[in-house]
Amino acid sequence: MKIVLGRLLQRASLRQAIGRRAYSIKKSVDIGQPSPASHPQLLKEGEITPGITSEEYTLRRNKLLEVLPEKGLAIFAAAPVKMMTDVVPYTYRQDADYLYITGCQQPGGVAVLGHECGFCMFMPEATSHILPDIMKGSSELFHNVQTAVPTYMELDAFQKAASSGKVKDVSVFTHELRLIKSPAELKLMRESASIACQALLQTMFHSKTHPYEGRLSAKVEYECKMKGAQRMAFNPVVGGGPNASVIHYSRNDQKIKNGDLVLMDVGCELHGYVSDITRTWPPYGSFSSTQEELYDLILQTNKDCVELCKPGASIREIHSFSVEMLIKGLNEIGILKDSRSSSYHQLNPTSIGHYLGMDVHDCSIVGYDRPLKPGVVSRDRNKD
């Protein structure tokens, strides 16, 4: 009886303790996104997002105003919240153009920028009469087509401009601005690439004892996040053996066989800026003679293409050089039987690279014939 009574008293005191400590009288302020006051470990004074100051965001808006027509109006809507199930949302990721101009990481907003109205943000969205009046006084409207919302698209002023052919995609301006990275952006991109490189190296060491696509995918994501990345830039591609030849393979559910190579295409996102790296290696420790010969050809092509990545060259020119070099090498090895580019493209239908920045395929409206300039970041796709 004493034992039973003792246990009941222990439970009663536990309930009382929980009851006394189930709430806190300390006030907590949630302003929606991190600030230097709430997250001093992330942001310094003067920064709107980690690494990017309020002055830089102002400079971006001023540069956009310089190319915006005199009575033109730029409209940006935040990315929508996407749902995994009816009640569970996916982790939110802001639209790159909206983030680039506003620095706001929260959903549900609309921002406008014009010579007369200046910079205005409507949170959660534009429900007042102010935005229709601003639109009516504008000669042209430029909006982010990818995140357009009915909140402003259904307004009479927008409908009238659209019917007159005076509504265009704002990316013709923003992608040009985003193409050249500032020193602060380049610093974040180097840090993002460094995290991905270190994570991939740790995953290589891990692969001999865990030769499974899924485990390698989990390992690289763990290492990226432990080193400070907020998320992966895309679902890791981990292809063992023949799976490596599947573009954007993402099942990651096979065991890698002894003697096969594994290809990993991975990248992480650090405070809005992404990295993108591909490497191929033998998890069991050694190349076959055929694998080594092919690997050396691709590695040498990679090195020669990196040497070409200088101001004045274009991604398309570098791509054409890589195709010529690989066709020649693959013929010598015996993998290709002729020098036709069509035969080569059956083996590799992808481009050698793409622009990189806030999105994995950054500034997609900018063509690959554009000469490279200082501040432009591209990703070399050769899989060494």
Layout of helices and strands, plus pairs?
Layout: H1 2-21, E1 47-49, E2 52-53, H2 54-67, E3 72-77, H3 96-102, E4 110-114, E5 118-122, H4 130-136, E6 140-143, H5 150-153, H6 156-163, E7 167-169, H7 171-179, H8 183-207, H9 213-226, E8 231-232, E9 237-240, E10 262-266, E11 268-270, E12 273-274, E13 277-281, H10 289-308, H11 315-333, H12 341-347, E14 353-355, E15 378-380
Parallel strand pairs: 3-6, 6-7
Antiparallel strand pairs: 1-2, 3-4, 4-5, 8-11, 9-10, 10-13, 11-12, 14-15
Helix pairs in contact: 8-9, 10-11
Keywords: Hydrolase, Manganese, Metal-binding
GO molecular function: manganese ion binding; metalloaminopeptidase activity
Family: Belongs to the peptidase M24B family.
Structure description:
The chain is α+β, with helices and mostly antiparallel strands and 384 residues long. It folds into 3 domains: 47-178, Creatine Amidinohydrolase, Chain A, domain 1 (3-Layer(aba) Sandwich), CATH 3.40.350.10; 180-285, Creatine Amidinohydrolase (Alpha-Beta Complex), CATH 3.90.230.10; 287-383, Creatinase/methionine aminopeptidase superfamily (Creatine Amidinohydrolase, Alpha-Beta Complex). It contains 12 helices and 15 strands. It is globular and about 70 Å long. The N and C termini lie far apart (74 Å). It holds the Pfam family Peptidase_M24. Its cofactor is Mn(2+). Keywords: Hydrolase, Manganese, Metal-binding.
